[in-house]
Amino acid sequence: MPPAIDAHGLVKYFGKRRVVDSVSLSVPEGAIYGVLGPNGAGKTTTLRMLLGIIEPDAGSRTLLGRDRPIDAAYQIGYLPEERGLYPAMTTREAVAFLGSLRGLPLSESRRRADRMLEANGMGEVARRPIRTLSKGMAQTVQLLGTFIHQPKLIVLDEPFSGLDPLNQQGLEELIRAERQRGATILFSTHVMAHAERLCESLTIIGDGKVRFSGTVEAARATLRARVHLVTRQADGPWRAALPADAVRQAGETGWRFILPPEGIEPLLGQLIAGGAGIETLSIERPSLHDAFVAIVGRSAVEDESLAA
């Protein structure tokens, strides 16, 4: 099965500045895929090139098997980072209008808008003007307008920006429901928690370049787990068994160190034999946030060394 999105070597200059530098990514059909990066990393420019809103200066991309994104326009739902709704429109008409822009007859758009608003707890505000809605409600309206024509590919640019935790949870549920329907979802974010909960695979961009592509687990595996060990005995010959990086942090009674490559079992055997008296032991697996900071931070250091 060909990927829903396949991009190779995308490059974009704004003036003399290269804001996207040879970005390649492949999004499998039916996946929830994340494009991660700090603010200014080139995420939005990459998404706009994928969608054909702006043309790349170099590289190629296909969307849903088509070389020209415009040929797949009616099969794509796009939520831009800059939100925009007509404030005088009613909630129902705003959702229906967005559907009509994607090829639905207006009468069908209105029927679908009524169903979707009711299903998402917004039936009571269907006749209210957009200007009277809260920010979270207005965001939901624009999201429903993005999904109303049941697109095969959904692209969301920083969809969680500005939403409170309850609305963020609602958006995650909407994304999962669209994936269950069979859609492919690509979204950009700089908030790792959403990507960790939703994505199978992702690409991390820093300074316009791909720093990592792969599964969430593979990203987390770029860092080794940390161990927190508390012993009943404060000292003894068993301390020689601790890894060289073991440190006792200020105000703590235990030790922290990186999980040894051979695992924890050999070390436990030595500690038990030495009479350390293990009180507690926990292994803290790195989060996607930890991996992201390490990957992006490491890439910044590498870029500085190359420039020097």
Order of helices and strands: EEEHEEHHHEHEHEEHEEHEH
For the largest sheet, list the strands in their spatial order.
5-6-7-3-8-9
Instruction: Supply the CATH class of the largest domain.
Output: Alpha Beta
Structural class estimated from helices and strands = alpha/beta
Remind me, CATH topology of the largest domain? Rossmann fold
Average pLDDT confidence is: 90
Entry summary:
This protein has 9 helices and 12 strands.
Q: What would you say this structure looks like, in words?
A:
Belongs to the ABC transporter superfamily. It is a single chain. This protein has 308 residues and is α/β, with parallel strands linked by helices. It has two domains: 5-220, P-loop containing nucleotide triphosphate hydrolases (Rossmann fold, 3-Layer(aba) Sandwich); 226-284, no CATH class. Helix content is 34%, strand content 25%. The protein is built from nine helices and twelve strands. It has a six-stranded mixed sheet with strand order 5-6-7-3-8-9, sandwiched between helices. It has a three-stranded antiparallel sheet with strand order 2-1-4, with helices on one face. Strands 11-10-12 form a three-stranded antiparallel sheet, with no helix packed on it. The longest helix has 20 residues, at 288-307. It is elongated, with a radius of gyration of 24 Å. It starts with a strand and ends with a helix.
